[in-house]
């Protein structure tokens, strides 16, 4: 390691801590993406449910914890805008995740980090390979003889 660079980690433990922090940050990004994708999916369900309805039909919407009465005509565009905003945030988070993955890969290359599987993971992998070729035999339903 170069002693002249003040940003260089001092020892192996510092490198491991930095690496773990980077991986944790990537996991947080993925968690947020998953959460927002669920929100976008819920928005799609609402849009599909209220789109065919009469534009002047009563509709209720939760705004800041308060349920307000509106019409489908007022609610539908707002829900569509919210969904578009969520999709934009998801796209930006996906870009951030890709950037973080590249950063982690560069860090792994720089410090020659290799991920070792624990013994239990190695055993799990071998049992999955064996079990993947085995099928399950189920008898006909309702025959309890």
Automatic annotation (TrEMBL):
Sorted UniProt keywords: Chaperone, Coiled coil
Recorded GO MF terms: unfolded protein binding
GO annotation, cellular component aspect: prefoldin complex
InterPro entries for this protein: PFD2 (IPR027235), PFD_beta-like (IPR002777), Prefoldin (IPR009053)
Record bears the keyword Transmembrane helix: no
Top-rank taxon, per record: Eukaryota
UniProt-annotated stretches for the region Disordered: 118-145
Entry similarity comment: Belongs to the prefoldin subunit beta family.
Protein name as it appears in the record: Prefoldin subunit 2
Protein's organism: Salix dunnii
């Amino acid at each position: 390691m170069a002693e002249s660079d003040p940003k260089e980690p001092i020892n192996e433990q510092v490198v491991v801590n930095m690496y773990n922090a980077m991986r944790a940050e990537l996991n947080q990004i993925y968690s947020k993406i998953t959460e927002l994708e669920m929100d976008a999916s819920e928005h799609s369900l609402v849009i599909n449910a209220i789109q065919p309805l009469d534009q002047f039909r009563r509709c209720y919407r939760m705004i800041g914890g308060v349920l307000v009465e509106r019409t489908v005509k007022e609610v539908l565009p707002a829900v569509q805008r919210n969904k578009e905003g969520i999709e934009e945030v998801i796209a930006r988070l996906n870009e951030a995740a890709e950037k973080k993955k590249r950063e982690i890969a560069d860090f792994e290359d720089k410090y020659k980090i290799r991920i070792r599987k624990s013994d239990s993971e190695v055993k799990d992998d071998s049992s999955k390979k064996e079990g993947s070729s085995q099928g399950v035999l189920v008898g006909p339903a309702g025959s309890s003889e």
